[in-house]
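Deliverable D5.2: sample structural annotation.
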Amino acid sequence: MEKNAAIDPKEARRAYKREWAARNRDKKREYDRRYRAKKAQQKGPSIKYARPAPGAAMTEEEYRAAPAVNKSTLWWIRKSPAHYKHALENPPADTAAWRMGRAIHAAILQPRQFRKMYVTLPMGLDRRSKEGRAAYDAFIANAGGKELLTEEEARTIEQIAQAVRSDKHAAALLENCQTETPIFWTDQATGIECKCRVDAMKPGIAVDLKSCADASTAAFLRDALKYGYDVQAAHYLRGIKSINGGQPVDWYFIAIEKAEPYAVNVIHATDGFIDRGTWQLMGLLDKLKECREAGEWPAYGENELILPEWAEIPDDE
């Protein structure tokens, strides 16, 4: 009896991959067909609310409560629609890092407001004693609802703010800027209501402050790609252009290290950086629109594990 010809393992793997790709193409076509049929029968819900005027005075709480899509929540749909829906319905709890970041922003961008918003807790208040607790309670009662900072936190915040003010590049960018500007607009491609709050802006320039552990350009770029700073820049620029007549705007990051010597790095976002963010942003908004119209918020779905080439069993020689 004649033996079967030996099967080439590499060719077998390639054949399997081709078969897997074809099978998934068929699944996608069927999904698209069902989606189009459902879309024809069901119109997605629209969000109705009174849109604030561009640059209208808003507290941070009012801005967060406005029912429009911001980058921070939209970023979750990159993981899955289920994660986006959960983040939307369960806003994350405040953290010490976020609280510190807000205080740094206020000290740099709105120093007068900072003094109205924060108060420094004096050292030496020992709340373990009856007298210490009474002194602390009296201090809180007189604080008028301001957020508390320890002396160490207040000293760090002031040193960071001073480092930014002393940097000629950062100071020039922030000069004569409108700060903490809320903007609301409708995305033209999807009809989704969007929002952003720009740290600092003036004609032709927008600035975003980022406090970080390492403000060197290489480290900042790694963080930018990991956390979607390019998507944030693209999202914010769309908002700015919705109120400035579509005029070009240069985007800058001011990166500030949170430890001494509180080094500052002023980084200009290139067209390529913004283009990458725009490309990702469009995909995220498209996915959000699909989920809203379908009324479905899937997680990871059904997938197959395909080994990368480096992990495959080596061929016999």
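Annotation notes: The mean pLDDT is 87. The chain has two domains: 52-89+167-297, 94-151.
The annotation will be released with the project's public dataset once the embargo ends.
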